[in-house]
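Private note to self, pasted from the team thread so I don't lose it. Backbone tokens:
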């Protein structure tokens, strides 16, 4: 996807999911990915990046919650 598509997807995601997904669609995130000769990035690596990031956030929240429960015991 090119940068124009990237920005369009960001708008659609923000409308459908909410503003929290906007952080994945920054210009600096687009620049992190390898581009082809036309300046496009592959969708799969971007998708995997988002899924890994979300998974790490969820894991950190679960760990924090578990630690909080252990401290109360």
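Design output:
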């Amino acid at each position: 996807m090119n940068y124009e598509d990237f920005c369009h997807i960001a708008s659609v995601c923000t409308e459908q999911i909410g503003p929290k997904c906007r952080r994945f669609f920054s210009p600096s995130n687009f620049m992190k990915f390898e581009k082809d000769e036309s300046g496009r990035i592959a969708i799969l690596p971007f998708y995997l990046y988002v899924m890994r990031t979300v998974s790490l956030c969820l894991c950190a929240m679960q760990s924090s919650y578990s630690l909080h429960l252990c401290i109360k015991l």
